[in-house]
Amino acid sequence: MKKAKIPMRKCIATQTLVPKKELVRIVRTPEGDIFIDDTGKKSGRGAYLKLDEEAILKAKKKHMLSNHLKADVPDSIYDALLERVRL
Question: Which InterPro entries is this protein grouped with (predicted)?
Answer without folding.
Answer: YlxR, YlxR-like_sf, YlxR_dom
